[in-house]
Amino acid sequence: MSELDAVVVGGGISGLATAHCLARSGLKVELWESASRVGGKIHTASQDGYCLDSAASMVMNLRNEVDAFIETSGLDTSKLPRAPGNKRYVLDASRLQEVPTGFGKLLRTPLLSTAGKLRLLAEPLVGRGKDPHESVAAFVGRRLGREFLEKVFEPYLAGPLASDVDHAEAVSTMPRLRALESRYGSLALGALLHKCLSRGSAARPQAFSFSGGMASLIDGLARNGGFRLRKGLHANGIWPVKGGWMVAGSADKQSRTVFARQLVLSTPAGAAARLVHALDPLLAELLGGIDYAPIKVVHTGFERARVGHPLGGSGFLVPRHSGFECNGCLWISSLFPGHAPAGKVLLTTYLGGARNPAAAGWDQTRCLDAVSPMLRKLLAARGEPDMVHIASHQSALPLYHGRYSERLSRIAAHLEQLPGLHLEANYRGGVSVRDRILCAQAAASRILRQQQEKPARTSIWLDSSKLPDVAAATGTIS
Ligand SMILES: Cc1cc2nc3c(=O)[nH]c(=O)nc-3n(C[C@H](O)[C@H](O)[C@H](O)COP(=O)(O)OP(=O)(O)OC[C@H]3O[C@@H](n4cnc5c(N)ncnc54)[C@H](O)[C@@H]3O)c2cc1C
């Protein structure tokens, strides 16, 4: 039987980044992925010369640690910074308005009424909130006013986060903003102070992809990660033993059982719930109760000449009650010109999310019925697209809804009783690729510290009657 320092289950960006950080620290690591390809939600397809990302289309980076990660993964050379110009738009009364960034633009924007602007300026005078679980709507409405909430934050939550401002917990969804309030008593003053204090040490905000799309990040980690990758191996049993964990999995008709000192589950929450159920049903219940929103990603390609809008910027978000069934549209070919053939544009529209889960069941015709009128009206797109490609995710993103931080605290308390078991996926610590890399680095440091603690902490031992059936399976994959 193989003995490993760590097994990571799940080959999405969370698992790959964690396995890479552990392997780089000198640990003997295996990563198990049940599908025949790694990447999880992240996948890049190619069609008619377009580069089509099915989930993350870019990394929004604000931290030096992410740059260092990309460099050490050998991915620096294929890194593709976004094209210059960072205008973002939001739909407002049938027109696209630029989202104001900076004080001057905020004062001049036609997006907000004079009353809305005055309300924003009053933000430093607003007192701290008392409800630790208040929703994003309550938090933003209280601090920045209802108009800013509806015109800027609601579309932001429904778009990139597929979430719902009325249900999303502020402290889980936007922890940095909540921290500014609790530390400085004001978002505006806190942000200003933070900017002054971190001058010189913070990374310059940047967005980037890779020349082969986001799959390059996945392929690079799979190739050069330094761990043993086992594709098509589905983990179906875990149990604690002295000094570590036994992990069992199956691929076709074979099975594999290994001992690992550390076990990282980087699967979606439901899959982690199934794995821990036999040893901690309450933990399984906490994980199983995390809801996910579905998303349809509708890529459309047009001749440049058939789209009247200048497409100068990254795209636009759509607020609720706009009359359109879409959450937002990225102008991918403006961000990364190489992702579309010369003379063509690539417009990627997002449907579904918590706002419209029914879109999960839509076929291509129904999706285009939602997308085409919007592209015609807002971007002056003429005729049918030359290229259509749709990616569907039934469980696209976890929703940090309700008293989510309390759920996470209870999950952490259960993990305390299961030393050597780690949960590292996008339902903990943020959904963005940047957050996944930062969480992987933190998890690897924590795991290394635990490895160095001698003697190993005592694990709970299960009696043999509680072992999953698969433990008795014969036939192993070497
Ligand atoms: C439409 C969309 C657009 C997005 N856009 C952006 C963006 O522009 N920028 C950004 O930063 N982020 C973006 N994100 C978020 C980001 O892509 C995801 O949060 C991230 O990819 C999730 O990674 P993960 O590894 O946590 O989970 P997953 O990608 O879901 O990976 C989990 C893996 O575990 C495997 N698995 C499950 N059970 C088992 C088992 N029992 N045994 C073995 N393997 C198992 C699965 O097969 C899967 O490969 C977007 C997400 C979506 C859906």
Structure description:
The strands form four sheets. Strands 1, 2, 10, 11, 12, 13 and 19 form a seven-stranded mixed sheet that branches. Strand 3 (44-47) and strand 4 form a beta hairpin. Helix 1 packs parallel to helix 16 (433-452), helix 11 packs antiparallel against helix 12 (281-288) and helix 12 packs antiparallel against helix 15. The protein folds into three domains: 3-40 and 216-290 and 401-472, FAD/NAD(P)-binding domain, CATH 3.50.50.60; 44-63 and 76-84 and 291-398, Polyamine Oxidase, Chain A, domain 2 (Alpha-Beta Complex), CATH 3.90.660.20; 101-197, protoporphyrinogen ix oxidase, domain 3 (Orthogonal Bundle). Helix content is 34%, strand content 24%. The protein is globular. It contains 16 helices and 19 strands. The protein is α/β, with parallel strands linked by helices. The chain has helices spanning 13-24, 64-72, 103-108, 114-121, 136-144, 146-158, 170-173, 175-184, 187-197, 215-224, 269-276, 281-288, 332-335, 364-379, 404-416, 433-452; strands at residues 3-9, 29-33, 44-47, 50-53, 59-61, 79-81, 88-92, 95-98, 206-210, 228-231, 234-241, 244-251, 254-265, 292-303, 315-317, 326-331, 344-352, 387-398, 421-423. Flavin-adenine dinucleotide binds at residues 9-15, 32-35, 40-42, 55-59, 234-235, 266-268, 271, 295, 297, 393, 396-397, 425-426, 431-434, 436. Residues 9-15, 32-35, 40-42, 55-59, 234-235, 266-268, 271, 295, 297, 393, 396-397, 425-426, 431-434, 436 line the site of flavin-adenine dinucleotide.
